[in-house]
C-alpha cells in the first residue's frame, strides 16, 4: 500500500518544463558575449562565402544585447524615451556602419585581407561617441538627466546598432564591401543601401519594442528578452526574403527557416510567460489557446 501511495504522489507531481533563464548571462556577461561574437562575425562577413545563416545569428545576438541595454538604460522612468533611445541606437549604428564599411573597404584595397580589420574603426568610433553622448546627457553642466549607467548604456547601444546595421547590409549584399553596398546593384539597378530604411526599422524595433511592450511595475528581464529574441527571428525572416531576391534561394531559404523556428519557439515562450505571470487573462482566441 505504501508503495502504491508513493507512486500515486509521484504521478501527481507536475512535470518540470525547461525554461530559458538569463540568470547566468547577466547584463555584463551578455554584453561581452554579444560583443565578441558580433565583432567576429562582422569581420568574417566581408567574405561572400560566409552563410547568411551565420550572419543572422549575429544579428539576433546584437539585437538581444541592444534590447538589454535599452532595458537597463530606460527602466528608470524614461517612458516615451524608450522608442527614442532605440532609434538613437540605430542612428548611431547607421553612421558607424557606413564609416566602418567605407574605411574597412579602403584599407582592404590598400593592404589586402588584413584591411578588413578597418571595420573596427567605425565600431570603435561609435563606442566613443556613444560614451561621450552619455556623459553630456548626464553631466551637470549639460542635460543633467542623472540616469545611473547612462554612459555605459549609450556606448553599448551605439556599438550594438553599428554591428546590427553592418550585418544586415552584409546579409542582403553578400558582403559589407562599400562598393557593393553603396553602388553595385543587386536587384536590377538597386544597390543594397536602398534597403537601409527597412534595416533601420528592423534593428530599431528589435531593440526598443521589448521594453516598450513590457514596461511597467511587473516588468521582468527574462520575459522582456524573450520578445527581443522573437523579434530577431522576424528580422531574419524578412532579411531572408530579401536575400532570396538578391543572392538566391540557397542563402535566403536557410535564413528564413532559422528565423521561423526562432520566432515560433520564442513567441510561444513569451506568451506562456505572460499567461503564467499575469493575475488574470481576459479574452479568447489564438493567444488564449497557446496558454492552455
Question: Can you describe what's shown?
Answer:
The chain contains eleven helices and no strands. About 2% of the residues have low confidence. The chain is mainly α and 292 residues long. Helices cover 72% and strands 0% of the residues. It has a domain of 195 residues. Helix 6 packs across helix 8.
Name the features.
292 residues; mainly alpha; 11 helices
Low-confidence segments, ≥5 residues, pLDDT <50?
14-18
Order of helices and strands: HHHHHHHHHHH
**Termini separation (Å)?**
35 Å
The coarse overall form would be: globular
Biggest sheet descriptor: none
- Number of helical elements: 11
What portion of residues belong to β-strands?
under 5%
Mean pLDDT: 84
